[in-house]
């Protein structure tokens, strides 16, 4: 893997900068719960000057039991679906935002390799974004989850995951702007590339 594709690549730094700018424009904050990325998402954000205005903090929940103990993932979810699942990613994102008191929560979970894990192939990854508390969602945080099938070595998969969760956040921010515009609250400038995902 070349340096241009790695966790500290210009592409990752550019996306992190776009995230910080977008959230500063909206006076919103973000927090992270990371499994396979092990802090790369938070590190990329805090490399951006001015990140302290938007980044609340993060949880590194590599061990399965810490996903419950620190991020609040339910034991039922972990028992039924395991640590690598859309449901687990969604609860991690909600937990990050709630525990850290942020508007947005980001989560990463998956298999970076070199070996498969509990029946999941290398490169199977879930990223999730939890948005601000919504009355339309019953006072819960709406969550957007994307399943990824990534290729490359361990470092490449972790770097791609970091960029994917940033793109998903920017996609969610655009959607939040659209919702506010539809409600007559106005919308601000929107930035970032698209990432497909499912809302749960």
UniProtKB/TrEMBL annotation:
Signal peptide: none annotated. Gene3D superfamilies: CinA-like (3.90.950.20). It comes from the Bacteria. Residues 178-200 are annotated as: Disordered. Residues 14-171 form the CinA C-terminal domain. It holds the Pfam family CinA. This is CinA family protein.
